Amino acid sequence: MTLWMVDDVPARMIYAGKRWRITDTPTRLRHSVWEAPRESSLGLYGWRFQGTDEDGLSLVFDVYKGEDGWHVQRAYDY
């Protein structure tokens, strides 16, 4: 997964071979909401946002930044 930021806020990403535009106002997530692997928990933070692909499919994504980059924790319909 690749995540591009504008002014330190998610703006677009590539995930599962698709380009996604962030189409709402991202919400910053803190430690207490994560069920991420224990080795990634130090300094863990992330975002929740709606992403829309080029076909118009919209999903909600929870993403977190681990030691080796950004990861999708969860993607779901709303």
Keywords for this structure?
single chain, 78 residues, mainly beta, globular
Verbal overview:
The protein has 78 residues and is mainly β. It has strands at 2-6, 9-15, 18-22, 27-29, 45-53, 58-66, 69-76. Strands 1, 2, 3, 4, 5, 6 and 7 form a 7-stranded antiparallel sheet that branches. Strand 5 and strand 6 (58-66) form a beta hairpin. The chain starts with a strand and ends with a strand.
Q: Share of helix among residues?
A: under 10%
> What's the total number of strands?
7
Judging from the principal axes of the Cα atoms, what is the shape?
globular
- What is the mean pLDDT? 87
Give a quick account of the main beta sheet: strands, pairing sense, barrel closure.
7 strands, antiparallel
Strand content: over 45%
When the domains are counted, the total is 1
What string, H for helix and E for strand, traces the elements in order? EEEEEEE
Specify the structural class. Answer: mainly beta
Q: List the quaternary state of the chains.
A: single chain
Poorly predicted spans = none
Q: Outline of this structure?
A:
The protein starts with a strand and ends with a strand. It has 78 residues and is mainly β. Helix content is 0%, strand content 59%.
Question: What's the structural blueprint in terms of helices and strands?
Answer:
Layout: E1 2-6, E2 9-15, E3 18-22, E4 27-29, E5 45-53, E6 58-66, E7 69-76
Antiparallel strand pairs: 1-2, 2-3, 3-5, 4-5, 5-6, 6-7
